[in-house]
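Hi L.,

You mentioned the student needs an example of a multi-chain input paired with its predicted structure. This one should do, with 683 residues in total across all chains.
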Amino acid sequence: MKLPYAFSGKWIVPVLLLAVTTIYLVEALQMMPPIKRGDITASFFPVVLAVIMYLSIGIVIWQGRSGSGKTATVDTPPPAAAETQAEAGVPALNRFGALWVTLATGVYIGVFSIIGYSVSTFLYVLLLTFLFGNPRPGKGGRAWIVKVSAALLITLLGYALFELIFQVRLPTLGT
Amino acid sequence: MDYFRELLNGFATLLQPEVFAYMVGGYLIGTFFGAVPGLTSMLAIALLLPLTYSLDVTSALVACASIFMAGMCSGSITATTINIPGAPASMMTAIEGYPMQQRGEGAKALGHAALASMIGGALGAVLLMVVAPMAAEAALLIRTPGKFSLIAFALIVIVISQRDSIPKGLVATTLGVMVATVGIDVMQPVPRFTFGTSTLMQGIDIMPLVIGGFAISELLVQARKGGRRTVDADTIKAERIRRRDFIPPLREVREIGVYRYIKSAVIGYAIGVLPGAGGSMAAFVSYAEAMRSSKHPERYGKGSCEGIAAAEGANNSMCSGAFVPMLSFGIPGDPTTAIVLGVLVINGLQPGPQFLDTQLHLVAPMFAALLISALVLVPLTLYLLGPYFVRIVSIRRDVLYSSIAVIALVGSYVATYSTFQMALALLFGVLAYVLRQHKYPIACLLLGFVLGPSLEEYCRRALSINDGNPMVFLTSPDSLFFLLLTAVFYYFMVVRKPKTPGIQNIAS
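Structure written out for the whole complex:
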């Protein structure tokens, strides 16, 4: 199936990088001019980098456009479609797995120094065992016991590694 | 003489119980990470990086060296037994090892792989000990414009080694250099890209970039995959392996020949010295050369012991070669040595031409660890753990990745006792994940970040002392040499791409 470049999603990263580069370039130019009284300043190198970035993003976009035109004529499905087919057999939770792990990690970092290592890590690991393993642990308490035990064990081993072996002071509840 | 005495002292240091324990522990961790599909020894070293804040530098370097060596050869175990290379460097071993496994000769294939890894790794370590001081002497001759051109050469070669995605490699490398410009300027006391916050004033540390780029992004990739175990239960129903079959027959070893082992080691070592090459390229080039010059090229792709020996000898020898530019010039050629450079920087050490003169007592145990890992631990680990490895690598994904998440995130906290580093690791992890999904090489991002500040410093220094005249890069002989070398590499790697149709047929 023909998939134009605009709908292929390949443009997302180049456009994001273009935006980042533009902010970077504006900030560099606001700092000071690249060359002042014949001397190279702190903004010279960032300006050069921004120019290289614009050029290389331009080539990536150009290659992406010409590449999607070529692959569209071939009978084989494009990589994105093949990936979609491959993901059809993956549970719904895993399809957005990266997003869930990112959110869980963000919350973990947010509460880490507030509720302390032990509680936050135990809850985080317990959540991850669902995200990386079978989301439905099965009927009965045995599967739950396995996941809770794994979370407890990993939390304890982490504590032993950092606090006891490497003498790192981890945050505790109320400190 | 002093140099060799210091090297011998390195062996003595290695025999201290604590340092020795780090070598054996590092080797076992590296073997596990190298063998489990989806994990790499680089990830293991990345996870070790935060711990080096509270670890003796010698122990940290010894652990890194043995993880690196172990990761190269352990990938051959799953490559041979279940046709899943644990590490990319074992791709060629899978092509030859798995057909042997299907013929019931899996143990023999593993024996050949271990023997070649042992010889290649040991020769590589010896070459490192001999060549590193010479490279350091040569590095002393390079002046400021030449240093800029050398770093530019390294970065360009890293980019053009991304054969199918050179523009994406350039984007990732430039992004890495851009990230490195955050903080106080390298030459003047001017804050850059701090957006008014004091937190960014000291710049971005290598640690969150490494943890984010290699550990968190891997977690996000794995979170999209289903399955309960790293390797399916159906796959591990492989033929039982017996220890006595590990020893390769002398007739076959003679047939491969001493020359082949040495040649593979030299090829791997030379490729290791080059920026951006890595274990997979070392194995590939050595395998291609072995196939080209073989008396029995028809055996390749059907289970050739010679092919296994060529690939494994080269990728283990590469480990030592990769340390040469990092120690002598301060220029890491691949992500693993970039992380090892991070270990040194965290401990206030900066490699360069004088480094081996002043800090040899710190790195000599690492040289010794590379040699002992290759000579003793490679065969010993295969003999002891070989029969069980297929079962060891099939572990619960939920337990494995949850553990990695905890080590990575809490490790990030260790650096400054603040959750800012953890948040930064997550940010870089998401960025690396998005880039990986769109086939942008993360290794380029890291190497751009590591080499960026030196590139800028030498560029500006060279221009400053020459009144801003850029012609200095062409008139300075050492700079001109590296620019010409860049042109030569560009010609051979991009304009005249090497063609190896025989291997492509086998691989397909």
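You could point out the following to them. The helical segments of chain A are 5-8, 12-31, 44-73, 79-87, 92-95, 97-115, 117-132, 142-165. Chain A touches chain B through 74 residues (CB under 8 Å).

Best wishes,
N.
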